[in-house]
Amino acid sequence: MHLPQEDQELVEFARHIVETNGDGETHTVGAAVRDAQGRMFGGINLYHFTGGPCAELVALGHARAEGARDLTAIVAVGDRGRGVLAPCGRDRQILLDHHPGIRVLVPAGDGIRSVPITDLLPHAYVWAEQSAAQTLYFHRTYLDAVRAGRKTSTVRFRDPVEPGPVNMVFELDEDVVVPGVVTRITPKTVAELTESDAVADGFRDLAELQDRLRFHYPDIKPTDDVSVVHFRLAP
Length: 235
Prior knowledge:
single chain, 235 residues, 2 domains, six-stranded mixed beta sheet, 11 strands
């Protein structure tokens, strides 16, 4: 299967890490993760009989330390020409819990495939969904779009939100509560918002999204930081 150029580069980055820094004993697997801006961050495993971290977890920590939040793809490569390796069970659970939208490069019969983490851990226990639900307030006009699936994200300014279960409250004469799950959060500035962000937010185009942001947040500026909150309805 042909991989996109950006995925090929991710594999080569991980391979270079282990070939350059591996020692055949303690450090035997390299990993690389990519964020939504296309930046790559690497890691190498640290074997220890007490359970040292896998390369994928080191790469996740490296990305976080460098300020990356929205991670889109990850791969691990073994030393001595072993090629791309699938993540272990523990890593799959961690990826699902902390980065449920990430794609994982894995070996396949026809080469290397990019698959959603959810495909690698079907029928999984989702830790975030067992946590106490937070509350996210919406203007009443968005209720139908959320229920119909036309609105699957919301842009928030100075309104902290975390991945996990959420009660979406629509402020009508009698509040309507719609249960859901925040799947991921993408930090951006107002100026970095795109047409795709607008469509996912249930608007016709970016101009309409920006107009509504000014309606909800009159003092918002193009340089202000916002959060694009992606969510889905609870089953």
